[in-house]
Amino acid sequence: MAAASTLAGGRRHVHLCFTDHRDQTYALHHIDVDPLFGSEPADPDPESMDALPLPPPAARFQPPPEPNHVMNFHPLGDRRVVSIDELRRTLIYDAANGAVRAGPALRDRKWYTLSATVLGPGAEDNLYLLDHIPLRERRRCFEALIYEPHREDWSWHKLPQPPYVRDPGYAGAQVVSHAVAGSGAVWTYTQGVGTYSFDTARRAWRKEGDWALPFRGKAVRDGQPGGGCGLWFGISSAPDGRLVAADLATATATSPPEVRGTFEDLRPPGEWFCRNAAVVHVGRGRLCTVRFFATDPTDKLWKTRGTVVVITAVEVGCDGDDGGIRMVRRRSACIKIPDYNRLINWVL
């Protein structure tokens, strides 16, 4: 497998992971997004897409033998992918050289989880893993894969539950969106509960406000210097699902983060139905939106025909001294997903 080279000080691949129903494995594909940025002028037409084939899997993962067992996949920084399963097993895959190694066992079983990567004091990435629906009875719903320099290895650490799970009226709610703030704290918005932050240095939760983050799913920060504008980008929680930029640093106890701009990165055919979407940061000033569609308008349950993924390259930056945001669409790649890969997917 070719090495995962860098793009503008970041990365040049977006990783997609699918279930393969032919042999019940999980297939990890590397999508080279370097050509989507290119040197040609920006394409102003949001309907323009290049058809690309799905590349062969760079790696395959075998789930536990028991029926209906699933694996979850999470990015650990720019080059590693961590997989976990319901038997508490951990695998760490290095996309730069294709190496796979066994990691430490989770403290508790996990089913559906969300994750955030935070740079630790030893300049190694650490992975924070939270149940998609935190529950009081799941006392180990929050764990972190921490790199320990003295051991030159990672280990899982149990972390405190979000404090709202102990509220008498709380019966379980979905974590709708999350992001890593500039301080290294993990912010989460839980439906009907509000936004909380977890300070990874102090290992303590704090309520930020009753308001919602303006994103759906994971938001990523585009850092400076060398490009970008130091804001957070994600898929808007508004019905239009556009790319949205917000500044978490402007949030207060009574007001949510300031939305600094929205952008139409893609205008799909009217009969397409959007299943889900994500944003990946690939380098300073460069993002990719990743959107999954059912192209058959009668297939809104995502059962069979015509699944595609569209990856769009976007460059972002500051527009002058007035604090404005510049978002420029480059090219989009449309990849048809085989029917045997159609159901579960991860964008890494």
From TrEMBL:
Pfam families according to UniProt: DUF1668
Species whose genome carries this gene: Urochloa decumbens
InterPro entries recorded: DUF1668_ORYSA
PANTHER family for the chain: OS07G0513400 PROTEIN (PTHR33085:SF56), OS12G0113100 PROTEIN-RELATED (PTHR33085)
Full protein name: Uncharacterized protein
